[in-house]
Model the fold of this input.
Amino acid sequence: MDIRAIGMGLAFALIWSSAFTSARIIVADASPLASLSLRFFLSGIIGVAIARAMGQSWHLTRDQWRATLVFGLCQNALYLGLNFVAMQTIEASLASIIASTMPLLVALAGWIIFRDRLSKLATAGLIMGIVGVALIMGSRLNGGVDLYGVALCGIAAVALTIATLMVRGASSGGNLMMIVGLQMFVGAAILAVASVATETLRVNMTWELGAAFIYTTLAPGLLATWIWFSLVGRIGAVRAATFHFLNPFFGVAIAAALLGERLGLIDIVGVAIITLGILAVQLSKQK
Done:
């Protein structure tokens, strides 16, 4: 792994983790699904425009179209949509912790569904991840956390796992920025329908809402997705996924710094254990 790949991985982890804090700011003043649909629509326009300026085509391969549709559904509509709804009632730090368990879910799914053999290091990492999540959940349950919001984040993490498994098909064959833009439109369309069917439109225009919306549209929406696809194409999905071990730390740190969310000692210990567990699982996959 070269220096450029390391820099891309760090940038991705930082931007990706910050999305939970900006989302928490947005849903405080706007309807979650409607605002997210608008964000995807604008990100899609910008992404496709950039792709066309780069000479890229929307004539994708069959594998790329399939990956684009599944990624748009699972990551944009389900993963982010459910997280936006959940963060009306739970803190950004908790949502980021749950989302960061995705590498553990990938390893666990491989063991249960595909009968993949786990090394001792991977097994230890899974156990550590489970212990860390149990510590945090136990602490939050005693503090009266909203179980519905937690359940939505759990479903979202499963959807992100499925989306991650589709990245390989999307990152090969060129037209990378076009794929990034088109999968935004998939999420926008699905969430627009969901918004009309399930929520009443509300908007309280504040500078915090405007800043968070612009940042979420450009940084986590376009930049982080492009970095992720590029990183996977550069070093492969297994090595790229290693950087997810930084998400728990970055997620809670940004939420604490910008939103003032307080973390107890048990939360800090749980985050540390989950971080080490994710790192152990990912290192076990390295050749």
Remarks:
- The first helix runs from residue 3 to 29.
- The CA atoms of residues 79 and 155 lie 8 Å apart.
- The mean pLDDT is 84.
- The radius of gyration is 18 Å.
